[in-house]
Amino acid sequence: MVLHEFLVKTVGEPLVKTVLDTGPKYYSWRHDPYIPVEFSVGAYRFGHSQVRPSYRANFGTNGDDIGQQFFAFFSDHQLDPTDVDPADLRGGCRAPRRFIDWQTFFDKRTPLWFYVLREADLKQSGQRLGPVGGRIVAEVIIGLIRGDRDSYLRQDPEWTPTYGAGDGFTMVDLLNTAEVVAKL
Known about the structure:
This protein has 7 helices and 2 strands; from the N terminus they run αααββαααα. α1 packs antiparallel against α5. The two termini are 25 Å apart. By secondary structure, it is mainly alpha-helical.
């Protein structure tokens, strides 16, 4: 699922296929795989923008019984909805004074994380990473999986799941197989 669903949605299928077929251009390791700083504090900052403001999970067996459901909210319900600009950093509001004109701060030394996010915005309408950010993320994630002696890419690279809907096996298939989602 990480390679063939998450990574495809994050960097695009053509790049995933290229890195799987031809190997990395830039990411390499000698003894043990590692996470380079360009990934952790640069390119993978895109992952922060993928967090939803709330989640609903673990419905149990009854989608109608609120007592059997789990909800997670990442906003503060105690914020006053009439306060358009709270005085602290809890978020929840997009007041004009909170926007930053980053071009004021950066010239030719633009930080990688900003470049990657801007590239994603301009080249992929913010839906996935662009060529530079995508290459970093794809090469590191695939490299880490290949570097794991117990991963299927090392043990049996031609392996595919034997069940799932259609030709693949997705997170939805896993949750349905585990019977953790009630029929609504």
